[in-house]
What does this fold into?
Amino acid sequence: QVQLVESGGGLVQPGGSLRLSCAASGFPFSYYAMSWYRKERELVAYISSSGGSTHYADSVKGRFTISRDNAKNMVYLQMDSLKPEGAAMYYCYASAEDVRDYWGQGTQVTVSS
It folds into this structure.
């Protein structure tokens, strides 16, 4: 059974930090690129299967960092200097060429003073 389980969301003040985690199981994790999305499927960050390539939305560059641990089947999103517009449900997404993709259920991030 494929699972992507996000955690780490919560309430943070503007300027604060959160670290999101996504635990993957049931598929060959190291074969899949991983991404974080928010809101209406807005791509926030992407990391290649090996972790050697990353991509960020312009709105989060320099503040967010995506990483992965293929030994633990985990992907992370370190979010620093959070802004109110960063409040959203954040989703973990697994994709690979010519195979089906997978979505997690999301973790809520609230940015408010």
